[in-house]
Amino acid sequence: MDAARHAVAVSACDQMVIEEPLRLDSGAVLAPITIAYKTYGRLNRDRSNAILICHALTGDQYVLGPHPVTDKPGWWETMVGPGMPLDTERYFIICPNVLGGCMGTTGPAHDDPITGRPYGLTFPVITIRDMVRVQALVVDSLGIGDLFCVIGGSMGGMLVLEWATTLKERVFSAVPIAASVRHSAQNIAFHEVGRQAIMADPDWCGGEYQRTGRRPERGLAVARMAAHITYLSEAALHRKFGRRLQNREQLSFAFADPDFQVESYLRHQGSSFVERFDANSYLYISRAMDYFDLAADHGGTLTAALQGSRARFCVVSFSSDWLFPTAESREIVRALNAIAGNVSFVEIASDKGHDAFLLDEPEFFATITGFLNGAAEHRGLARR
Amino acid sequence: MDAARHAVAVSACDQMVIEEPLRLDSGAVLAPITIAYKTYGRLNRDRSNAILICHALTGDQYVLGPHPVTDKPGWWETMVGPGMPLDTERYFIICPNVLGGCMGTTGPAHDDPITGRPYGLTFPVITIRDMVRVQALVVDSLGIGDLFCVIGGSMGGMLVLEWATTLKERVFSAVPIAASVRHSAQNIAFHEVGRQAIMADPDWCGGEYQRTGRRPERGLAVARMAAHITYLSEAALHRKFGRRLQNREQLSFAFADPDFQVESYLRHQGSSFVERFDANSYLYISRAMDYFDLAADHGGTLTAALQGSRARFCVVSFSSDWLFPTAESREIVRALNAIAGNVSFVEIASDKGHDAFLLDEPEFFATITGFLNGAAEHRGLARR
Predict the structure, then answer these.
(1) Which residues in chain B (289-328) have CB-CB distances under 8 A to chain A?
(2) Cis bond upstream, residue B108 (ω within 30)
(3) Within 13 Å and on the Cβ side, how many CA atoms surround A186?
(4) Is B118 left (phi over 0), alpha (psi -120 to 50) or beta?
């Protein structure tokens, strides 16, 4: 593939097919693999200005909208665009849909080329490292050697850390946001509730719902509702909803409709999610997060895992994030300090919980802008 | 009813039927009402040594075991018994199953006397105050005027606060544990997830599952799993389970069985719960908790609600409880201070989360013992 061609005309939306078989952490081999991705901005002639954005569990490649399914804005419009922290006039942004996803990249909803039918639960269980391997195929295909930056929040932050470990020589700078080096017992527990909700839905059909035309929408909606609470904070829920009633003056004393605004909000989160997400993808990607344990997978210690990384790190957490609390970001920082790594760390004061990385947080934007400007200077990238 | 008779021979397990119609907060009228309750110890001749225990959302009257359904120990064996903090050789303990419950007290699983069929969703929506009214009927029937103490944790603590407000003249001392004066937005949200999980189960049959012989066990199990996480703490989950695998040396890379011990533990919590609990009871009782707002229901302010209480209060919270955090207990204390109430407050240092009130916490037991000893002295109760 001719990288120089991309420097002048990178298509806005792409899909590539990798025929070469990929061996996964499970031992399974997957081929072919289709990867859907979006790019924004232009790759420079040195191919030195590429930023890989890693999306979260239920994210996708539509960093900017409109989203083709929901017609809504993209999930990181606050961060990406001309003059934004991830400045599309300066950087070449790549965001692939992760392996196992449901927005075009190979996943359980895809047809298995051998049977011609959807994989369903015959899709191999995947890991964060497998996702990184697939992202690297996109980067390779675009003719890019090393990435100026790998950035992402939540699961995206896990992917950033995996890049900085497995493919450390290809990462110039790394920004893991609201992330962790391993999924905690509490987080595994919440994921398990979601998976059980999906698998309890008779319309899940043992994972083969696609063959039946049914969809486990009720189970997936419950999974989303439970997860969504963990993305917020008690303070944010109190501020946004408190105990305010939904379209009524007093309690209904009935079960037909939500009494409280927070109930109505949650139901909406559930019902809108099922329009755009696949239940089996949820099972596979949540499992990949649960499996993630950077130290265990790379020599037993974090320092062993990160040893040799030359990347400049900016580790970001949010003060009210109880899903990936600041203590977990500090653990990353301590390990990087132990290997004399180049790391800055910022805990952003916010009451918005884990989802703060998707929201309007000026201090967060200033942090990212400042870090990238500094890194770009060291990289010798021209100012816009 | 002859209270003196109870002083010599209180039956160990009782059920009473109240024929007189009870008007509920919803405006609905309920009759007859059956109330199942357990008593422990003996009522003294002054009828001055009665302690009312208020159980939590999924608790029941079986403070001591064996539980008739599960054959397991009672839920407060750590607290109640001879020589225990709630000393059955000194105090007369009463614990009724709450209105809406499923262990003998009238609830949605009971037959509606008018139709002869289970109430299901025709059962009126109830409140914490309605539950207190029904508890008072038990206390009345036992010939007891005022209670030496009303004590309970979680929803039980809400009931304690309601007693100290609605029936303040009948409460000598009050111990709300891990409680709150109103259910928070986050807690309403978690309850709503549980309710949606139940109602999403096709076996719920619009609430009429009893007529079909089906039971929404999968939905109820998911509700329990989500709730159970909120009863623990991240630290407790980490200490008990961490990322340890369940009966295996390495990750399974499959979905058939749990990989992690915490998943297996949660599934067990779900499946054992459905054996002993009714799904509609879960809907009604969780809703009653969500509706609870002591200030709103009594004059708009907490001080207005509690004004006139002569009770001695002991407010207890647990440091790692994120469902009913210490700040919510402090709010009770502040309101009692504002009315110059008699209140002591203890935050127990514990990493066990909300469920600490059910577990072995020596400092907690010492607090309750000390408080009750002091109150008993003021009450003129003989030492054992």
Answers:
(1) 290-291, 293, 296, 322, 325
(2) no
(3) 22
(4) beta
pLDDT computed for residue B248 by the predictor: 83
Judge whether A321 counts as a catalytic residue: yes
Query: Read out DSSP for B316-374?
Result: EEETT-SSS-HHHHHHHHHHHHHTT-EEEEEEE--SS-GGGGGS--HHHHHHHHHHHHH
**Amino acid occupying residue B259:** D
Q: How many helices (H) and strands (E) does chain B have?
A: 13, 12
- Residue A7: count of CB within 10 angstroms of its CB: 17
Length of chain A: 384
Task: State how far residue A344 is from chain B, nearest Cα, in angstroms.
Answer: 27
Q: What is the helix, strand, coil percentage profile of chain B, to 5?
A: 40, 15, 40
Predicted pLDDT of residue A384: 62
Superfamily of domain A3-183+294-379: Alpha/Beta hydrolase fold, catalytic domain (3.40.50.1820)
3-state secondary structure of A156: helix
Burial of residue A269 (CB within 10 Å: 0-12, 13-18, 19+) is middle
Distance from CA of A14 to the nearest CA of B (A): 30
Contacts for A185 with CB less than 8 Å, ≥ 6 apart: B234, B237, B238, B240, B241, B242, B243, B260, B262
Max CA pair span of chain A: 66
Burial class of residue B137 (count of CB atoms within 10 Å of its CB; 0-12, 13-18, 19+): middle
- ipTM above 0.90 for this complex: yes
Mutation site, A187, A205, A246, A255, interface B, largest B CB count within 10 A = A255
Give the relative orientation of helices B155-166 and B128-141 as an angle to the nearest 10 degrees.
Answer: 70
pLDDT band, residue B383 (cuts 50/70/90): confident
Q: Do B221 and A196 touch (CB under 8 A)?
A: yes
> Could you list the mean pLDDT of each consecutive 10-residue stretch along chain A, which spans 384 residues?
32 80 97 96 97 98 94 97 97 98 97 94 98 98 97 98 98 98 98 98 96 95 98 97 92 93 97 97 98 96 95 98 98 97 98 97 98 97 77
Phi/psi-derived region of residue A17, left when phi > 0, alpha when psi is between -120 and 50, beta in every other case: beta
Token pair for residue A273? 């999610």
Secondary structure letter of residue A277 according to DSSP = -
Whole-number pLDDT of residue B5: 32
For the segment(s) A187-287, the CATH number from 1.20.120.1730, 1.10.1740.110, 3.30.70.250, 1.20.140.10 is 1.10.1740.110
Residues B138 and A283: their CA atoms lie apart, in Å, by: 49
pLDDT above 50 for B18: yes
Q: Is the pLDDT of residue B379 over 50?
A: yes
User: For chain B, what are the domain ranges?
Assistant: 3-185+293-379, 187-287
Q: Compute the count of residue pairs across chains A and B with CB atoms less than 8 Å apart.
A: 163
B205 vs A: CB within 8 A: no
> At a CB cut-off of 8 Å and minimum separation 6, what does A293 contact?
A181, A182, A183, B243
- The per-residue DSSP string of A80-124 comes to EETTSSEETTT-EEEEEPPTT-SSSSS-TTSBPTTTSSB-GGGSP
Nearest by Cα to B35 from B63, B15, B55: B15
* Sequence-separated (6 or more) residues with CB below 8 Å from residue A209: A120, A203, A215, A216, A279
Pairing assessment for the beta strands B13-18 and A342-348 based on DSSP bridges: unpaired
Question: d(Cα A131, Cα A163) in Å, to the nearest integer?
Answer: 10
pLDDT value for A13: 55
pLDDT value of position A236: 96
* A275 CB-side CA count, 13 A: 11
Report yes or no: A256 at the B interface, CB cutoff 8 Å.
no
Q: A148: which 2 tokens? A: 């100026």
CATH architecture under which domain B3-185+293-379 falls: 3-Layer(aba) Sandwich (3.40)
The C-alpha atoms of residue B125 and residue B148 are separated, in whole angstroms, by 30
